[in-house]
TrEMBL record:
Transmembrane segments: none annotated. GO terms for cellular component: nuclear lamina. It comes from the Eukaryota. This is LTD domain-containing protein. Gene3D superfamilies: Lamin Tail domain. Keywords: Coiled coil, Nucleus. The lineage of its organism: Eukaryota, Metazoa, Ecdysozoa, Arthropoda, Hexapoda. InterPro entries: Lamin_tail_dom, Lamin_tail_dom_sf. SUPFAM superfamilies: Intermediate filament protein, coiled coil region, Lamin A/C globular tail domain. The keyword Coiled coil applies.
Amino acid sequence: MANFQFKDGHIEQQLNAPRTLDEVRRLNEQYYFRLCNDLEAQAEAKAEAQAIAKAKAQAQAKSKTNRNKIKIQNLENELQHKKSTQDAIQEDVNVANLPITKLTKLRDDLLSSYNNYLRKINDLEQLRVLQTPNYISEIRALDQQLTAMQIDISKKVQKYQDLISIENSTYQKLLVSEQTVLDITPNPPVVCSPSAKKRKLFESDETESEFSNIITVSSTSDIEISEVCPDGQFVKLYNKGSKELALKGYELVRTTPEQNVSTVFKFHGSVNLGAGNWLTVWSSTASNQIYKHSAGSIIMDIQDWVVGDLMATILLNPEGLEVATHELKKRAGFSFTIQ
C-alpha cells in the first residue's frame, strides 16, 4: 500500500509537470502498463500466497490428520491392551469366584438343611407339647395298673404261701400217720459241716431216713450249688458273696455211679451272676421251664442232666478246680416235681 502511494505521488508529480500531449499519452500508457504489471504481479503473489497458505493448510491438516490417526491407532492399541488385560483379569476373577461359588452353594444348602431341621424341631416340639399330656395320662394309667398288679401278685403270693403251708402241714400229718402205722422212728436230719468239703461225693451214710433225700453241699468260693432237681430238670447256683462274678469258663459236671455217662455244661460268653442272685441251668427237655434265656435262667441246647439214685454235681472254675459240690442221694418212695 505504501509502494502504491509513493508511485501515485510520483506519477502525480510527473502529470502536474508541464508536458505535451504525446508525452502525457506516453506517460499514461507507461503508467497503465506498469499498473497492469503491478496488478498481475500482485495477483500472482496473492495467488502464490494463497497456494502456499492452502498448501500449508493442507500440509497442516494432513499432518494433523496423521497425528490424529497415530493418536487413534495408539488409543486403539491401548484400548486393545486394556481389553486384553481386562479379559485376563476377568478370567482370574472367574477362577477366583469358582470356589466362592461352590462355597456359596454349600452355604445355601447348609442354610436350607438348617432351616429344614429347625422346622422339624419345631414340629417335634409342638408334637411333644401336644402329646405330653397323653403320655402322662398313659404313664399314670400304667402306674395304676402296675400297682394293681403288684397288689394282686402279693395277694396271690400270700395265698400260694398259705396253700404251701397247708400242704406242708397236711404232708407232715400224713408222714407222721404213716410213721405211726409203720412204727418208724425218724432219725434227725444230717447237717453238712465244713469237713464235708473233703469227704468223697459218693460216701454212704448209715443214718439216712427212708422217707427223705440226703443232700451234702460244700463250697470253697462265693458260688454254691444251692439246689438240684432229683428228676434232672435243673441245677441252681447262688452267689452268696457281695460282688458280681463272671462265669465264663466255669463248668457244671453231673455224674452218677449207676451210669457211665455224665453231663458237662460249660458257661460261654458274658454270663454273670450278681451278688445275692440265683442262676438256673435247665435241661433241654425240662417240662417246667418258666423262663426263657435271661440273666437268671439258661436252657441247655441239647443236653439233659443225668439222673440216678446217687447224683454228684460239681462246679469247676476255669482252672479246672472244684469250687462247689452238691451230692444228692435218693430214698425209695420219694419223688420231686416243680409246680
